[in-house]
Design brief:
- The chain is of the alpha+beta class and 873 residues long.
- The chain has 22 helices and 19 strands.
- Helix 1 packs antiparallel against helix 3, helix 14 runs antiparallel to helix 17 and helix 18 crosses helix 19.
- The two termini are 87 Å apart.
């Protein structure tokens, strides 16, 4: 594969060279117009070129390829001498020319004439148009399909043929490109004919292609060298020219022979269609020029060949179309239109000639034929009979060339009516297949539809238990491609678009015995395809067949999709009815089981409530146990001190009683005894007040949950009571309680006992965390602040923190980070329930592993719900 940028550069360069050469030759050739010339044209070697027109004196004279040696008896050395002598006399002057060929002299007498614009149009314009067409077609085809061997042959042939034709205008003056012209003449047969016969339409000698191609190019090179050596030796030049013409005729014959051989031996319909395009191009463009050149060669150049320039461009144009186009049916449609127009044109021409003959014979005079009204009369007749003539020609072409035996329009109308009348899939696919089989005589194939789970296409008609299947991924991309309504087996031949999938797709064709695959698609969703095998007649499918099959596939796809959907609905309905019956029976059983389950759930719920109450009570008793130990220790000191004070007070009372009658005891002594007694009473009162405070804090924690006391209370007092309750545990853990408050006396609406219970659990956990960390002089900080209408209480310890993976579960019931046996896992859960249920608040935790944990409680200051919590604290 050539690099794209390099290929563009080469193509553009070649095109510019061709256009520049054509522009130079066009400019030079226009000098002929309105100039006098001898009635024939002479090349720079003084040889008369095989070019003439019917009204030229040389048209019926055998003077071509003769050397002009003298005019009116005066020798000439160059063609310029001849043209100068003619130009010096007025047009119509008769001259005697001395000619020489094969050593034999002769004389030719003719009057000079004026070279008109019509002469220029008939002589030079065909050369220029054909040359440009040959060269540009070769360049465009090579640029479009550089990987195809035939495109290289067309490029070389187009350039050599274009060079030969374009420089043909320079042969007769001023002779700048005479040597290039003969090189093009030498290489044109080898490239466009012999080379093309080897590689197109079949690359028949792929392994030995280069060796075989060297032979025709070696012959062309020999002719080219001989031309260059003997160019100005008229006798030798004429001989080489005759050989080149024979070579061109033999090259054309070899191309026709190779094409005919491929047409009858190849099993590829694409190859046959290309050959038909080639034959059409030969008939339209090269059959007449080839015969003209060959006949000119065998007659010694006596026949003019300039007429070849009018039609020769159609030949490379047909070859280029056949090389570039891989669409089998697009080629077929072009063939059909071409045959139709050719047949219609020939029919009209024969009709015109017959009309002339009948008119002349019937009137015994040709005066009406020469009349200006005759073309008008023939035109009116053509207008009247053109439409039925076109229909008759169309039907004849269809039957003779394309074997169309059915009326597609009527068949489609009939199938539409039948397909719309049923929703049964079996009837639809049976009718579709019978329609295809009866109209085209199909021998094999079937209708394939995609199956859902395996994602393959299975044949549903004709029905077969072991029918073939085709994998979905092989065909979806090809059958849903834009602009490709149908896929043919022969589309795979030489088409690089299929690439590595070519063989896999070919095996898919073989597995379903098909020549065509017709997609059944709905909005680019390929629901299936119709595989169509060979026709019983042996003929291949035409473009009309494809149009009919495409329209039929569109109708079939919709009908099959509707039938499949209807079948699925019926199946779903049947399944649904069966399920309804099953579910009704199951529902009655389920209702019975549901009532039993409800009764069991009610019993389980009651058991769960009792269990939760028992667990909550156990947690409460465990907390009370820990508190009782601390309270007992705290109560011993004030009670012991009170007992001692009372004993001392009793001693003083006894002393005072005995001293009442003692004259030695003075009033001052009585006052001292009374003072000591008063002091002991005050001390006892203080100790007892302290014991009462401990008892009060214990009551704060152990108040029954149903005894809810909702009121506005000071938060700091609750914190102080909880701290007093836990003072013994604080001393044991060597922790110090630090209370911080941002306002003077923050108050909260709710039950102070519930808040005390929650704070007791939080502070107890903080004490345990500080004891576990064992830091010196640890602190527990309680921060109380008002944030608008929200009361915020934070409890921060200086413990080891909470692992990040445990934070999401820290408030779950029975989850604890403490060692086994040291916690129930209910404290934080109960604190959360109290904050949420009684204060309509929320509790969250933040932890810094190895440093601390902070529990933050947020509650509305105006109060929360007063309903009882789920569990008892």
């Amino acid at each position: 594969m050539l690099d794209d940028s390099w290929q563009k550069l080469c193509s553009a360069t070649l095109a510019l060279i061709v256009l520049a050469l054509a522009s130079i030759c066009t400019f030079n050739s226009t000098r002929w117009i309105d100039s006098a010339f001898p009635g024939f044209v002479v090349m720079s070697n003084r040889v008369i070129a095989s070019v003439t027109l019917p009204h030229w004196p040389s048209a019926n004279r055998k003077i071509f390829q003769h050397e002009v040696v003298a005019i009116d008896g005066r020798p000439i050395d160059t063609p310029q001498d001849l043209y100068k002598r003619i130009a010096g006399s007025p047009a119509g002057t008769r001259f005697v020319y001395t000619l020489l060929k094969d050593g034999t002299g002769s004389y030719y007498t003719a009057a000079s004439m004026k070279f008109t614009s019509r002469d220029y149009l008939l002589i030079f314009v065909p050369y220029l148009v054909s040359g440009l067409g040959l060269a540009l077609i070769g360049i465009v085809v090579w640029y479009s399909k550089p990987e195809t061997p035939a495109s290289l042959a067309l490029l070389i042939g187009g350039l050599s043929g274009g060079l030969f034709a374009i420089t043909g205008t320079d042969l007769y003056s001023p002779y700048w490109f005479f040597r290039l012209h003969v090189l093009g003449e030498a290489f044109f047969p080898a490239s466009l004919l012999v080379h093309l016969a080897i590689v197109f339409p079949v690359d028949r000698f792929r392994r030995h292609r280069r060796l075989l191609l060297s032979i025709p190019y070696a012959v062309a090179a020999a002719f080219g060298i001989a031309y260059e050596v003997f160019l100005y030796r008229p006798g030798s030049y004429t001989l080489i020219h005759d050989w080149c013409m024979d070579y061109a005729g033999l090259g054309g014959a070899s191309l026709l022979t190779a094409a005919g051989w491929d047409f009858f031996t190849s099993d590829s319909q694409l190859v046959r269609q290309r050959i038909q395009i080639l034959l059409l191009g030969l008939v339209c463009g090269f059959a007449f020029p080839g015969f003209l050149m060959f006949y000119s060669g065998i007659t010694g150049g006596e026949v003019p060949v300039n007429y070849a320039g009018f039609t020769v461009i159609l030949f490379p144009l047909s070859i280029g179309y056949a090389i570039v186009k891989y669409d089998l049916f697009e080629i077929d449609a072009l063939l059909k239109r071409s045959v139709y127009y050719m047949t219609l044109s020939v029919t009209l021409a024969l009709g015109y000639l017959g009309f002339l003959a009948v008119t002349g014979w019937g009137l015994h005079s040709s005066a009406i034929v020469r009349s200006t009204y005759f073309p008008l009369l023939f035109t009116l007749i053509v207008i009247v009979f053109l439409s039925p003539l076109k229909d008759a020609v169309q039907q004849t072409v269809d039957r003779v060339f394309f074997r169309l035996k059915y009326n597609p329009k009527k068949m489609l109308e009939f199938t539409s009516a039948v397909l719309a009348s049923t929703l049964q899939l079996e009837d639809i696919v049976s009718f579709i297949w019978e329609t295809i089989r009866s109209t085209m005589g199909i021998k094999s194939g079937g209708i394939f539809v995609r199956s859902a789970p395996p994602r393959v296409y299975e044949r549903i008609f004709p029905v077969s238990h072991d029918g073939p299947v085709v994998e979905e991924h092989l065909l979806v991309a090809e059958l849903t491609a834009t602009g490709r309504p149908i896929l043919s087996r022969h589309d795979l031949d030489d088409n690089p678009r299929f690439g590595p999938n070519r063989e896999a797709i070919r095996r898919a064709f073989d597995s379903v015995s098909a020549e065509l695959l017709m997609p059944l698609a709905l909005k680019r969703d390929l629901i299936g395809f119709i595989a169509i095998g060979k026709k019983e007649s042996g003929a291949f499918f035409s473009a009309d067949d494809v149009d009919f099959l495409k329209a039929l596939s569109n109708q079939s796809a919709l009908s099959i999709a509707n039938a499949s959907a209807y079948r699925e609905i019926q199946s779903l309905n049947a399944v649904l009815e069966q399920r309804v019956e099953q579910r009704t029976a199951e529902l009655s059983r389920t209702n019975h089981e549901l009532h039993s389950s409800i009764r069991r759930l009610e019993q389980a719920y009651s058991d769960l409530q009792r269990s939760q109450q028992d667990l909550s009570r156990a947690e409460k008793m465990a907390t009370l146990g820990r508190l009782a130990a601390g309270v007992a220790h705290e109560m011993n000191t004030p009670l012991g001190a009170s007992m001692t004070s009372l004993k001392l007070l009793q001693d003083l009372v006894d002393e005072y009683t005995s001293s009442v009658e003692d004259p030695d005891v003075s009033t001052t002594d009585h006052r001292e005894i009374a003072f000591e007694m008063s002091t002991l009473v005050g001390a006892t009162r203080d100790w007892l007040r302290k014991a009462a405070a401990h008892i009060g804090s214990l009551k704060l924690h152990t108040r029954a949950l149903q005894n809810v006391e909702v009121k506005s209370f000071p938060v700091l007092q609750v914190v102080e009571d909880v701290g007093l309750l836990l003072s013994h545990r604080l001393r044991l853990s060597k922790s110090r309680l630090v209370v911080e408050c941002s306002s003077e006396n923050p108050r909260l609406h709710g039950d102070p006992g519930k808040l005390g219970q929650a704070l007791t659990n939080l502070l107890s956990n903080a004490i345990d965390a500080n004891r576990e960390a064992a830091r010196p002089n640890p602190e527990i900080r309680v921060r109380v602040q008002e944030d608008g209408d929200t009361m915020v209480i934070q409890v921060e310890d200086q413990g080891p923190g909470i692992p990040p993976e445990d934070i999401p579960r820290i408030f779950d019931e029975f989850f604890s980070t403490k060692p086994f046996g040291e916690g129930t896992g209910l404290g934080l859960s109960i604190a959360r329930d109290i904050i949420s249920n009684f204060f309509n608040g929320a509790i969250a935790v933040e932890s810094t592993p190895g440093k601390s944990a902070i529990f933050t409680v947020r509650m509305p200051r105006t109060g929360g719900s007063s309903r009882a919590p789920f569990v008892d604290a």
